[in-house]
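Hey, I'm writing a tutorial for new members on how sequence and structure tokens pair up, and I'd like a real worked example in the thread rather than a made-up one. If someone can provide the structure for the chain below, I'll link this post from the tutorial.
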Amino acid sequence: MCGRYAITASPEALRQLLQYFDLPNFPPRYNVAPTQPVPVVRVADGVRRFVLMRWGLIPAWVKDPKTFSLLINARGESVLDKPAFRNAMRYRRCLFPADGFYEWKSDGRSKQPYFIRPADGRSVAFAGLWETWTGPNGEEMDTAAIVTTTANRSLASIHSRMPAVIAPESFAAWLDVNGCSAEEAARLIGPAPDDLFEAYPVSTAVNRTANDSPDLIAPLAAASEAPAPPRRARARAKDDRQTELF
């Protein structure tokens, strides 16, 4: 599964990769969590667009989202059959830009978080599905889920599932719901190449959704060995920043 991920590349780098029409400006995010607004790329009127959606898909037929389970992931093996996903797979596919994701490895009674990122430092795109939910008063909410698949050999020791990565040469096919059928698109879902990602343990600070800083993706050894700055140095740094602001 994929329950947290990171978007750290610049807006221009992601636009160059995904070739969308819009020119959004956004900060890096190191701990993207379910129910938060997330950027996805979809096609509208033949043009790739960058849009924000809530992470957690709500099918159009749901009457009350409060009584419906949060669907942050869609299993690639069943997207053609599950009522919650089959219409989206046929008519509403999207891409989630990402620079890495977190997974937790069970270690006895505890779980150790790992950050998993492309070994070459480039961004990737996860397969996604989206839906627009309409409430009883006409309110609308766009929601999306990440498609997952069986973990490749290099990640299987951490977790049995991983996000389905769509290769750049297949972006057009995945997004083209008119020219590429759901059955054809399903063939693009599968484990990423074994050498695509590298993984390393990170701090459990990622467990808190309120935490969002570069420290979260620092290797655990480096994070634990880095000395804390002395109190006077921290105070001086704060004063310097205040001087610059005022």
